[in-house]
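Pinned message: reference record for 7-dehydrocholesterol reductase
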Amino acid sequence: MAAKSQPNAPKTKSPASVTNGRAASQGQWGRAWEVDWFSLVSVIFLLLFAPIIVYYFVMACDQYSCALTAPVVDIATGRARLADIWAKTPPMTKKAAQLYALWVTLQVLLYMWLPDFCHKFVPGYVGGVQEGAVTPSGVVNKYEINGLQAWLITHLLWFAGAHLLSWFPPTIIFDNWIPLLWCANILGYAVSTFAMIKSYFFPTSTKDCKFTSNFFYNYMMGIELNPRIGKWFDFKLFFNGRPGIVAWTLINLSFAAKQQELYGQVTNSMVLVNVLQAIYVLDYFWNEAWYLKTMDICHDHFGWYLGWGDCVWLPYLYTLQGLYLVYHPVQLSTAHAAGVLLLGLLGYYIFRMANHQKDLFRRTDGRCLIWGRKPKAIECSYTSADGQKHHSKLLVSGFWGMARHFNYTGDLMGSLAYCLACGGGHLLPYFYVIYMAVLLVHRCLRDEHRCASKYGKDWERYTAAVPCRLLPGVF
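Predicted structure (tokens):
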């Protein structure tokens, strides 16, 4: 959606938008004020089964060579019991705990105590102290944007320690993969629980908190919008990008090193996964300042969904392709490899250029060229929570004239490329594109529900001009 991010939420007449005496006008900002039965069931399901899903995928690779149905078949036929599978699962070790503690400590230090210097000599990079969007209470948080710097330093230390000084083997992450899972879970649950306690007793901004009467929903979706400790440590920005996303490329490198150790070579499929996912990771850190104005930072509150998700779900399930290729090395034909590379690069190009077009349109207030032409836009207006009327524009040119969320289309193309690099032997590596499709479609619907409430009939004009969400002519 190409509308300019706004600091305040629109007014709404929804009966579910008023609780504890709060204005209904705030109902569309961030997560829900009240919880319907479907949301509650979904929350409880995820709290119960998301950790099991992660364990199941990792266990299936460790004990069943990534065959997803094999554990179920073994249990159903009596060849194995749950206790047998659990008994074969590596426990948390002292070494893994030390490694994980060192890792998190390093990322905290790089985030908190090393001001960004990349923006001083890297042309076009926006780093250093940047402002986020205005919150519903009128707060404008400042952030030290130094993710690219943290990524570079971390990887330099990795190569120096593993390859130059031989302090540790480059396979160290794979070799401790399941013990590290328990450490990541401990951190995920600890930070989520701390964030909830903090929101009750010492919130960063009381006016940016959202409470419901349901404990499980509060715990999962979060209460505080931007929980912080001190002036600079922002929970949401830190856990959204560090330690999970910084680790993503290191995890893939460790998987590649394990493949080299086991089979004497790194296959072209493993190279493709490493390269394409590294492009995505670097894009995130290059545009970290831009992400301050996205839904993740502006609207999502910080709870278990982000805290545990960033610590466990992201590093363990977003890297399944590399893990799979350790157990099933795939050497693609030249044509297959070229096709995967082309799809991945095309998807990235669409993702990045669509976001660039939207950002350019916002920054110039439409006084720019998109695809060599003056952009077309739909003028719209809305009323903010303070009763003031505002005007905005919805872009209908370039990629945004093809579909209302064409940046997500590019993201899905890239996700599919990661999976296709693994061939067609197993379902497991395709979990990522299936999950991303569900996630992005859900995000489309959330975004459009918010925009429909915000812009009213102007939004109807926009959807009539751009009828498709993701795939032109299809959806």
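Pinned by admin. Summary line: Residues 353-475 form one domain.
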